[in-house]
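To: structure subgroup
Subject: Chain for Friday's discussion

All,

I'm putting the inputs and outputs inline so they're searchable in the archive.
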Amino acid sequence: MIRSLFALIFVAAVVLAALTTGHAQMVKTEKFDIKGDGGTDYLTVEPATGRVFVSRSFSALDPKSGDIIATAELEDTAPEGAAADGQGHIFVNNEGNVTVVHQDSPDKYTVVATVPTFPGAKTISVDPKTHNVYLFQPERGPAPPPAPDAPPPAAGAGGRGRGPRGPIIAAWFIVIKS
């Protein structure tokens, strides 16, 4: 009886090992220099075409070559996020507006609308079933006043001193219906 139990455990272990090693994959990494100055604040993929979009205003990349295929001019030169709806629209979040970019062809893009949202909103997502666009942003009250002898806030990235922030007084959930 014990031999049968050990044999069963051994067979189960061999089967489990075969199943898990059969699914192991090699991962290949490629890096592409997309040139330009400034950082990239977002990256999103258009599921229908496989094009990759990055900030620097708006740039469409070929994911196989890393080549910049097209650009579109946005009102804001430092967008914070983007999402694609799988139907030829890319929604670029500009911290207070969402710019709607239409994919006329895999290599041509046109700005078709600017939708006001909420100042500071950065998080953006698209529901793949309804194609609705969602944003979230907390609203802050006034920052507490600094002590009279406090030094000015230290400069952060880009030379901006952020200083103290006020308490969160509300939270906004924004829906742009397609």
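Points worth raising on Friday:
The longest strand covers residues 97-105.
Residues 2-22 form the longest helix (21 residues).

D.
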